[in-house]
Amino acid sequence: MKAAVPLRPAYFVIEAKVTDPQGICPYQAQVEATYQAYGGVRVVAGGAPEPLEGTPPSGVIVILRFPSLAQAHAWHASEPYQAILGHRLASAESRAYFVEGIA
């Protein structure tokens, strides 16, 4: 019998520089419920980054952990998240990506 492959966690990493503090309020008020519904947990939220090499971040860093890359993608594509995403895109300059962790 083949051994089960353990799921690898996935991380949503975002660096965001808010350009419209009022415009991002609906996103901030609703985003937590959207990722929690997919097993997401916030592991980093803001805090002062301590640059060591390269260009320092220009905004806030947030990292969410999901049970798997499939769950992370399901959250990002979900109707509730897509319904609020436009608020962030219109109100902040950001870079966001998924990265798979180790089991």
UniProtKB/TrEMBL annotation:
Gene3D superfamilies reported for this sequence: 3.30.70.100
Entries under Pfam families matching the protein: DUF1330 (PF07045)
Record InterPro entries: Dimeric_a/b-barrel, DUF1330
Protein name: DUF1330 domain-containing protein
Span of domain DUF1330: 9-102
